[in-house]
Amino acid sequence: MKPIVLLSVLFHHGQAVSVARPLTSAASCPTVSLNASTNIWTQYTLHPNPFYRQQVLNAAKVIQDADLQKKALKIADVGSFFWLSKSTEVEKVTTLLEDVIPCNHVVGIVLQGMYSQANCTSPKYKSTELAAYKASFIDPLATIIKSNPSTAFAVIVEPSTLPSVIIHSDLPSCAPAIETYRTNIPYALEALNLPNVVTYLDAGHGGNLGWDKLQIATANEIALAYNASSRPSQLRGIAVNTANWNSWDMSPGEFDQSALEIWPENHAQNEQRYVRLLGAKLAKVGAPNHAVVDTSRNGVQGLRYEWLDWCNVDGAGFGRRPGVVGGANELADAFIWAVGGGISDGTSEEGEEGYDEYCGKPGAYKPSPPRGQWNQAYFEVLLREARPYIQV
Ligand SMILES: *[C@@H]1O[C@H](CO)[C@@H](O)[C@H](O)[C@H]1NC(C)=O
Ligand SMILES: *[C@@H]1O[C@H](CO)[C@@H](O)[C@H](O)[C@H]1NC(C)=O
Ligand SMILES: *[C@@H]1O[C@H](CO)[C@@H](O)[C@H](O)[C@H]1NC(C)=O
Question: Which terminus of the chain has a smaller tally of CB atoms within 10 A, N or C?
Fold first, then answer.
């Protein structure tokens, strides 16, 4: 099949910049069959989520500083995941697939149909009963994926839910949340067990589930989901660092040299260690243990007052760009950008609807608009603070 070469033209400061992109639409690609016993990221590149890409291009247009604007344009081309958080957004997946997707690109989707932001006793916890979850999220998503057999997909399953289940397992009020997790997650894993998909089950990060006393419970819960979904071949392992984040490899961890003294009960204070330590526990219980690691906003370390400070962390920078991890950590498949940097985690205005206290804390960027809205100023912080630096 002849590859179609399109010229996408960007206008800025009156200059036309032509970017040659060899593009083949997925419709003309061969049928995809992903072998989840292998690291698919050695063959596939994360496709830039076109909605986020457009937000970044719009943001670039209003940047005055020419150098910073060039950096923003670079970020538009970085691969990123699409978040499926509302049932009304399912049709956006179809729109997304109208993008021209090269045959060697993989479309990333974060599935967040169950929602738990803080803990399962909080009113913010909205458990989604299986019938609604199936009808609103999983079945339509599986249908779309099945009707696009020539497109490769990587799906991160339900960030934030496992930490709730593990951390609050002894709270009677959390029993319904745990029950929901144990029915919904296996259903999702089984329904998405399709040849053109690899799935990664969210496993929080080293700061919440890396505690020595929680690692075994975490591995067991994952094994339970794996068994309950009939051990799906396409489940590759875990996704880490998406809801709240840590350093990849700062030693001993995100905070400082004395972190191991402050928290001797946590030996997984960076994600590199977390992937290794939890991975070993997963291997023991016979569950898949490879990982993708979200590095979208972890470029800068040592910014926070507390590990729990997850919201719009002030001074954050874009982190490592998506791609194969390589090197010594054989369990880590790839760095990915799950979170779209520049999209607000939540409003900093106390009293506004949806306000979470973490978004108003001293280490959170202010002002920040409500969750999901674009924050231009914060996006520019991420650009300036990006590590590695954005080469233009
Ligand atoms: C998948 O990869 C594994 C590991 O390389 C290999 O043993 C297996 O045969 C492959 N499966 C298929 C269906 O190609
Ligand atoms: C859960 O969140 C609510 C509201 O944010 C808070 O009041 C409560 O203390 C939290 N419970 C636990 C066990 O952390
Ligand atoms: C999962 O199934 C395997 C094989 O039947 C079994 O050995 C293991 O104990 C099960 N794990 C859990 C957590 O149920």
Answer: N
DSSP state letter for 165 = H
CA proximity to 266, closest of 217, 331, 209: 209
Tell me whether residue 307 is annotated as binding.
no
How far away, in angstroms, is 186 Cα from ligand 3 center? 14
* Residue 205 marked in a binding site: yes
Q: Which of 34, 37, 196, 290 to mutate to test the pocket of ligand 1 (most atoms within 8 A of CB)?
A: 37
pTM: 0.91
Q: Say if residue 5's pLDDT is above 50.
A: no
CA distances from 174 to 87, 97, 121 (A): 24, 38, 6
* Ligand 2, residues at Cβ distance < 6 Å: 118-119, 121-122, 168
Is the Cβ–Cβ distance between 119 and 168 less than 8 Å?
Answer: yes
Dist. CA 352 → ligand 2 center (Å):
19
Cα(381)–Cα(303) distance, integer angstroms: 13
Q: Which residues contact 114 (CB under 8 A, 6 or more apart)?
A: 126, 127, 128, 133, 158, 161, 180, 181, 184
Cα 248–chain centre separation: 14
Kindly identify the ligand whose nearest atom is closest to the C-alpha of 216: 3
* pLDDT tens digits, 257-299: 566 667 889 999 999 999 999 999 999 999 999 999 999 999 9
pLDDT, tens digit (0-9, with 9 covering 90-100), for 315-351? 999 999 999 999 889 999 999 999 999 999 999 999 9
Q: At 197, is the pLDDT very low, low, confident or very high (cuts 50, 70, 90)?
A: very high
